[in-house]
């Protein structure tokens, strides 16, 4: 996990889908000039403040290895080849003890509080614990096991208690508050002012202002939530691992050869040679539902996937959801908020739940109207084929593919023949070079340890100067114990706290189905888009030029913007012409096929927009409602009915497996943020489209990197976007992008 600050590290690591928690921006204090960052490394002197704090050691070689500074090249890299689960508990306990001692040293400092001895001192705490969390994150997301999950269940409440001890340390909070309210704030650089405010708000928004019984209850709630979040995530993972649909050779009708080979390999790895395994993950479910001619099997696979966490057994998540919602509501009521959503969105770009709802509800009618059109087109094919049924959710992908082929003469499997995973990775490197001036060089000498043989690493340097930027890890393939989906994370972020610029350690993780030995991995256009998306997160981290760890944190409905924007470079001519080549012949993708892809760019937007919005709207309604006595199954069903959810579609993430909002708090009451960010994305993409050099225009690219990537959270996102675009983003760009009619509104700004 990249270091942010001690007070936020635990929250980030205990949320599977968290990428950094948003912080409130006090516009009265900070909405001023754009942030100016130092051009030289800084090293604020805090003297011998930590001189009496003993090093974090355990006497256990396995634990001490997890605590130890990174070693080797590139300013040191994690010891992934030596990580041993036997040392995890002891390392966590030693790291927490050391961190609390550092915090106490700051809190009990007899000197008056200053920016250096309080705010900067906090930035310098928790290094050992941060390193332990790097390994925790790998065990949690990339190689989970029953043994790890037992440790996770035991330690999550203890980690929550540890966090509460910091958040509720009144001496510490009073020192932070004194700096925040002092006249010195006016003498600090804008990024330093923002750091002070983020630190102050990190305490104030998490119970530091409470007293007595309320403070104790706040900590108790957090402790219980830590257990519930962990249980929720582990239940979903158990259903993903425990439910596999096996089919035989007579049931392969319609499936592409590449999928058949991957399914055979998946079955063989599960000691079911001769069969074909449809695993309970999106990367397996989605292509099966798209191509399989077996309608009964499509229904089976669909029900298995969308029933994760909802099977009425020991892994059922409904009771957990109900308790999570009740505890979240109780906790924010202690802080004086009307509901959880109001507390969560105060520090997002949206600011209020109503503004987030306004955006989603402006798009919803156009999305569902498009679904009706899509269903009519599909039903016409069913009827023409003599089918005696109406389109059901397990039919949608299958018949949409038929519509695609009929309407655009576009065969998704034909497109896949030109989408080789390795070639797409090279395309991403090309884009990074053109926009960010980055160069990626593979590291093949074994000097950078990895946690699995599939993981590869690259050094990232500046193309012009050769200056080292960081190291990029890629873990591309699905396997048992690995969380489904795709995500980005990091193991060290940029800062200059020690007087030198930190080398960034960034990672991308996917769940592509590994092909048979020697066979290229071919992926869908949608998966290629996701590949670019997650790489955008990595580029955001690698671009950082901030001085302080906390300023690498993100505002949730803004941080998705950078990654969503990078998706726009996949269909550019430079990528298509040079990297989309046939896996057998090496011939470039034909112009006619490219034309079909671009003509179909708004195809299926009814389905994709509606399934996403349904999840985002249900998330927001959950966290705006009184959760007393809530039954998640009924709430989900009734909310969707009230919205007018089409029968042919389900939520992208049904509540019992909605890990974004229930396995942690990274996206809770914030799943709407993908659409908020997509408004920014569509608007920014038009800035490139209008430029003389198009998507590779050097001036626009420089402005993008300087104003929206390098500054991270050192400036209010709204101000950052204004500096890039000269105005706020407009929803019309999103509607044009999706081929929807423009909304009837006088106000077009986000």
From TrEMBL:
Catalysis: reaction(s): Hydrolysis of oligopeptides, with broad specificity. Gly or Ala commonly occur as P1 or P1' residues, but more distant residues are also important, as is shown by the fact that Z-Gly-Pro-Gly-|-Gly-Pro-Ala is cleaved, but not Z-(Gly)(5)
Ranges for domain Peptidase M3A/M3B catalytic: 288-738
Transmembrane segments: none
Record domain Oligopeptidase A N-terminal: where: 101-215
CDD domains hit by this protein: M3A_DCP (cd06456)
Cofactor needs: Zn(2+)
Protein name in UniProt: oligopeptidase A
Superkingdom of this protein's organism: Bacteria
InterPro entries: M3A_DCP, MetalloPept_cat_dom_sf, Neurolysin/TOP_dom2, Neurolysin/TOP_N, OpdA_N, Pept_M3A_M3B, Pept_M3A_M3B_dom
EC code: 3.4.24.70
Gene Ontology MF annotations: hydrolase activity
Family of this protein: Belongs to the peptidase M3 family.
Cofactor note: Binds 1 zinc ion.
Keywords assigned: Hydrolase, Metal-binding, Metalloprotease, Protease, Zinc
Any matching Pfam family: TOP_N
């Amino acid at each position: 996990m990249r270091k942010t600050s001690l007070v936020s590290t635990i929250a980030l690591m205990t949320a599977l889908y968290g990428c950094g928690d948003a912080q409130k921006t006090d516009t009265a204090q900070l909405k001023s000039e754009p942030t100016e960052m130092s051009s030289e490394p800084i090293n604020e002197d805090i003297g011998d403040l930590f001189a009496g704090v003993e090093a974090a050691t355990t006497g256990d070689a396995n634990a001490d290895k997890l605590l130890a500074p990174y070693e080797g090249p590139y300013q040191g890299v994690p010891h992934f080849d030596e990580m041993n689960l036997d040392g995890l508990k002891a390392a966590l306990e030693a790291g927490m003890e050391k961190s609390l001692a550092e915090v106490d040293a700051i809190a009990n400092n007899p000197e008056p509080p200053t920016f250096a001895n309080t705010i900067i001192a906090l930035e310098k705490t928790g290094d050992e614990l941060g390193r332990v969390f790097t390994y925790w994150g790998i065990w949690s997301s990339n190689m989970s096991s029953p043994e790890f999950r037992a440790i996770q269940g035991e330690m999550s409440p203890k980690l929550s208690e540890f966090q509460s001890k910091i958040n509720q340390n009144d001496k510490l909070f009073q020192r932070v508050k004194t700096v925040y309210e002092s006249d010195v704030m006016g003498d600090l650089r804008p990024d330093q002012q923002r750091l002070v405010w983020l630190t102050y708000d990190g305490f104030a928004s998490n119970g530091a202002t409470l007293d007595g019984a309320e403070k104790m209850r706040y900590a108790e709630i957090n402790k219980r939530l830590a257990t519930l979040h962990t249980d929720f995530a582990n239940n979903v993972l158990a259903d993903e691992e425990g439910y596999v649909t096996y089919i035989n050779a007579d049931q392969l009708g319609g499936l592409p050869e590449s999928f058949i080979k991957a399914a055979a390999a998946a079955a063989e790895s599960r000691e079911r040679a001769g069969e074909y395994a449809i695993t309970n993950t999106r990367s397996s479910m989605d292509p099966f539902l798209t191509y399989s001619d077996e309608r009964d099997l499509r229904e089976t696979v669909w029900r298995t996937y969308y029933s994760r966490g909802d099977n009425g057994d020991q892994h059922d998540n409904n009771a957990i959801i109900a308790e999570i919602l009740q505890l979240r509501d109780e906790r924010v009521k202690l802080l004086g908020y009307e509901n959880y959503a109001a507390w969560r969105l105060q520090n997002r770009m949206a600011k209020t739940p109503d503004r987030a709802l306004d955006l989603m509800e402006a798009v919803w009618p156009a999305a569902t109207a498009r679904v009706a059109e899509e269903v009519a087109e599909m039903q016409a094919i069913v009827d023409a084929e003599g089918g005696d049924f109406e389109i059901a959710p397990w039919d949608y992908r299958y018949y949409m593919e038929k519509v695609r082929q009929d309407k655009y003469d576009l065969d998704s499997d034909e497109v896949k023949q030109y989408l080789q995973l390795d070639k797409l990775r090279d395309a991403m490197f090309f884009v990074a070079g053109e926009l960010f001036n980055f160069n990626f060089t593979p590291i093949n000498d074994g000097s950078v340890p990895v946690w699995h043989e599939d993981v590869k690493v690259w050094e990232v340097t500046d193309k012009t100067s050769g200056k080292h930027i960081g190291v990029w890890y890629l873990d591309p393939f699905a396997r048992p114990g690995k969380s489904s989906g795709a995500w980005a994370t990091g193991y060290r972020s940029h800062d200059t706290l020690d007087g030198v610029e930190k080398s960034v350690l960034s990672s991308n993780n996917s769940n592509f189905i590994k092909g048979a030995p020697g066979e290229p991995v071919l992926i869908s256009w949608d998966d290629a888009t996701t590949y670019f998306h997650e790489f955008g997160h990595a580029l955001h981290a690698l671009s950082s030029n901030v001085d302080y760890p906390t300023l690498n944190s993100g505002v949730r409905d803004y941080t998705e913007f950078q990654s969503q924007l990078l998706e726009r470079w996949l269909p550019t001519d430079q990528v298509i012409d040079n990297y989309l080549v046939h896996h057998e012949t090496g011939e470039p993708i034909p112009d006619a096929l490219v034309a079909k892809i671009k003509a179909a760019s708004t195809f299926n937007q009814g389905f994709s927009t509606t399934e996403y919005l349904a999840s985002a709207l249900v998330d927001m309604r959950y966290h705006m409602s009184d959760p007393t006595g809530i039954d998640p199954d009924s709430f989900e069903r009734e909310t969707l009915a009230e919205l007018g959810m089409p029968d042919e579609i389900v939520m992208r993430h049904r509540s019992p497996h909605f890990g974004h909002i229930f396995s942690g708090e990274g996206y809770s009451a914030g799943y709407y943020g993908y659409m908020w960010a997509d408004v920014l994305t569509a608007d920014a993409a038009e800035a490139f489209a209008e430029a003389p050099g198009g998507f590779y225009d050097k001036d626009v690219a420089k402005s993008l990197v300087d104003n929206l990537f390098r500054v991270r959270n050192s400036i209010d996102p709204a101000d950052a976007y204004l500096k890039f675009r000269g105005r706020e983003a407009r929803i019309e760009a999103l509607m044009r992008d999706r081929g929807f009619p423009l909304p009837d509104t006088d106000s077009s700004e986000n």
